Amino acid sequence: MTRMSDRVAGKVALISGAARGMGSSHARTLAAHGASVVIADLLEEEGGALAAKINAETGADVASFVHLDVTDYASWERAAEAAVDRFGRLDVLVNNAGIFTRGSVEDADVDEWRRTIEIDLTGNFLGMKAAVPHMKAAGGSIINISSIAGLVGFKNRAAYAAAKWGVQGLTKTSAMDLGPYGIRVNSVHPGSVRTPMTAGLARGFGQIPLGRDADTQEISDLILFLASDESLFMTGASLAIDGGETAGNNLRQDA
């Protein structure tokens, strides 16, 4: 990894679920553009290895790992404090951790429903609650990773869609609540992305106007923009990055 720019130089980012997948890509991208990154995850071995790799590749102490259970507020408090203790401040929170579950209201498992809401929605709330006290003095950027399932209905995804819609509502409400502190809050809504979580899914791409899924780097480039001062006048936005999947019915044929 080489230093690509100073777009987020001096900023400190805390990223949940960052040991692998999209979170890992976000951490590497932010570090490559000048930020210090705190990789927060349950996966200690993978998260620690990623932090060490980023430090080795950048030749600087710009990454650290902290154990994080996103459903536990005390764990979030420790993670936010660890970021400040290690790097002196906290400028960016990326609420990236999440799980994907199946089932309609008819057949979804009740315990899976509760676990999905706890991780995918409540986890975002707890992360924001822990981060805001460290951001109030100087402002910052909170980036909540939702999904296109938080913009349109998704068959057989009751818990997942409910949580991701909730993330959008939490984002817009918090943008109003936190605006006076200079804290921006935006939600990112990826469509089909190649990650370990989606590797086992059987998917076609006919519904996507661009005809393909996204590479994680394409999502990370949007995270970089939202973390940087280039987006200082953006808050409360719901940003679809989906190859046009939510633009309309791409499978409908002319009569």
Describe this protein's structure.
The protein contains 6 helices and 7 strands. By secondary structure, it is α/β, with parallel strands linked by helices. It has one domain (about 10-195, about 215-240): 3-Layer(aba) Sandwich (Rossmann fold). Strands 3-2-1-4-5-6-7 form a 7-stranded parallel β-sheet, with helices on both faces. Helix 3 runs parallel beside helix 4 (about 110-135). The model has no long low-confidence stretch (mean pLDDT about 95).
Summarize the topology.
Blueprint: E1 12-16, H1 21-32, E2 36-41, H2 44-58, E3 63-67, H3 73-87, E4 92-95, H4 110-135, E5 140-145, H5 158-178, E6 183-190, H6 216-227, E7 238-241
Helix pairs in contact: 1-6, 3-4, 4-5
